[in-house]
Structure to design on (107 residues):
């Protein structure tokens, strides 16, 4: 990705900001843009506790719920770039907790 598009939590007036291009031109280095959860997963894979892991999920809680999924050492984006986006998953308020894991109940 190279643009920030329709970011409702940022005060930019533009719907599409070519952020990667701006950094590339200013710094003369390769630049790729991704979301916070994917960046966190890549950081853990490269420098953190997941250095020796080939398969893991990084869950983030911020302006929404997201995750970065790494399978066979590669970040998974999915066919539309939204793999791991959990922001609109319905969680039962009084759902079961099992071994410190929330059980997600579907419809």
């Amino acid at each position: 990705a190279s643009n920030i598009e329709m970011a409702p939590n940022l005060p930019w007036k533009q719907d599409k900001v070519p952020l990667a291009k701006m950094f590339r031109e200013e710094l003369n280095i390769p630049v790729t843009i991704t979301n916070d959860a994917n960046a966190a997963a890549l950081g853990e894979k490269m420098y953190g506790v997941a250095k020796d892991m080939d398969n893991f999920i990084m869950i983030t809680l911020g302006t929404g719920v997201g995750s970065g999924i790494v399978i066979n050492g590669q970040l998974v984006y999915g066919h539309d770039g939204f793999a791991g986006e959990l922001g609109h998953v319905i969680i039962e308020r009084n759902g079961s907790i099992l071994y410190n894991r929330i059980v997600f109940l579907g419809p």
Summary: Confidence is low (pLDDT under 50) at residues 98-107. The CA atoms of residues 20 and 26 lie 10 Å apart. Helices lie at 19-27, 36-47. The two ends are 33 Å apart (CA to CA).
